[in-house]
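Hello Y.,

Per our agreement to keep a running log of every chain we model this quarter, I'm adding this entry. I've kept the format consistent with earlier entries: sequence first, then predicted structure.
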Amino acid sequence: MKRQCFNPYLPAWEYIPDAEPRLFNGRVYIYGSHDQFGSSEYCVNDYVSWSAPEDDLSD
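Predicted structure for the entry above:
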């Protein structure tokens, strides 16, 4: 049986391999970066941030 795994707090299309969650004033903030395919370095594309209420990460 194959099982599919989903990220529990980011949209399915978002991939942040080095995400760092932080909790501040009742919100969870996720910070991370996007890598460039084929690059010999990390974090060369951009940095991203997401946030959600701590009691409902799907929002």
